[in-house]
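Hi all, long-time lurker, first post. I run a small reading group and we've been trying to get comfortable going from sequence to structure in the token notation. Rather than ask abstract questions, I figured I'd post a concrete chain and ask someone more experienced to write out its structure so we can walk through it together at our next meeting. Sequence below, copied exactly:
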Amino acid sequence: MKRKNPINDALRLLKYRIRSEKELRLRLSEKGYTNEEIEKTINYLKEKKFIDDEKFAYLYAYDSLVVHKKGPFRIKMELRNFGVDEYIIKDALEKVLSEVNLQEIKQEIVKGLDEKKAREVLYRKGFGGE
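-- Answer (accepted) --
Happy to help. Here is the structure in token form:
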């Protein structure tokens, strides 16, 4: 029987999309790897720059805002769920918000809606009262 390789499994997961460190740890744990194997794998992947929570948070925030039209509050909650540190989330959101026109995105979302419905939709998508 062929021995499972945590690095290959991690790289296979990363091939589909960038992942947070916590998410990768969880997935490797679910595959039955020991904490020691997971730790060695994570350290190797960090060293080779395959996982980087700062890059993950920025790319996730940018995609979520621009492509999926999610608001900053919702993005923040989702990144927290991925196990990204608060200061990384804050930096990523600040960077993304400085690069995109938030008003334009909000106008695109509420186009053709009355004021009450527009407020509801924006709130559900994670845009605050700003």
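A couple of things your group might point at:
The two ends are 59 Å apart (CA to CA).
The chain has two domains: 6-47, 53-125.
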